[in-house]
Amino acid sequence: MKHLFTLLAFLFHGFTPSLLNAQGIYVASGTTFEVATGTTFHVDGLTLINSAPFDFNGLTVTKNATRTNNAGASPPPAADRYYLFNTNTPSFSGTVQVNYEDVEVIGLVESSLQVNNYSGTGTVWNNYTSTTNDVTNNYVLSTTLSGVTLREIALASSSAPLPVTWLNFTATKQGDNVLLHWSTAQEKNSLDFVIQHSFDGRNFTDLNTQSAAGTSSTILHYNYMHNTPISGFNFYRILQRDFNGLSSYSVVRQINFSKEKMAPKVQIVENPIQGNDLQIVIQGEEDISIYNMVGQLFFEKHFDKGIHSIDMSHFEIGTYLLRTNTNTIKLLKL
Fold first, then answer.
1. What is d(CA 292, CA 32) in angstroms, rounded to the nearest whole number?
2. Which of 139, 126, 142 is nearest to 76 (CA)?
3. Which domains does the chain have, with CATH numbers?
4. What letter does residue 105 receive in the DSSP assignment?
5. pLDDT, tens digit, for every residue of 198-255?
6. Which residues lie closer than 8 Å to 81 by C-beta, 6 or more apart?
């Protein structure tokens, strides 16, 4: 779906000289609207800061998920976000910033993204050096441009595309387990897939690694069954790596298990842990392991059914994950 926005928005509603936010205001053709140096325009993820006066007479911009101008062989593989002006703009000087969503850059190296612009003539897309590639807040800021004509703006990779073209990634409950499924449209020099899990959506640990196809031009399907989801929220993502050291992440999927529905095969007597001993009650044979929040193994042992004690005197105060054959439990050592 296309979303139509206009660049001009300051009439009647709290005009601030340093910032103009798009609110669907259109300046009719033939109306002189010269914007002073240093004014900031923000249009649904596109930000322009002009370093010289700029006339927006009659301009509108449309945000699209696909490219309109296919001249030549460039830009290289780009994010699924394009900004198209209704006509060639007057000469623009200043910086261009483009924000993006993670799902729009799957298969691209975020740190290599650059602002690209098609000037409306010829067969060339021009790419501009980035002054900022913020992969946390998801935006790219160009260097200062001088005297360019804007027509269509894209975020494209300055390096070769990653070897995997993702199709989808799903997480589905299977009883007390989670089935992860992902598929690729094509692969080139792909090494493997690392399945990762998190309980907070920020700190991920590796669950399993599966070999990739290497090179394929057909649709391929992969599966992994996670048998130890935690009570509460579970977050999953796939890290894809290739033989040349490049990598990319899938989108993040979320599954929630309520505490009432999870079978408590291992019970913690006291959590948070006040002293140095962790008391556990086990309903059957279990392999117990304890990790810190960055995935370092601190304890591992096989237990029979019954009540057991684990010495945690050498554990520092903090949060840990206790993993069993069927579950993962968050521990807090005080």
1. 63
2. 126
3. 3-157 (2.60.220), 164-257 (2.60.40.10), 266-333 (2.60.40.3080)
4. G
5. 888 878 888 899 999 888 878 889 999 998 787 788 999 998 888 877 777 788 899 9
6. 45, 63, 64, 65, 98, 100, 101, 104, 154, 155
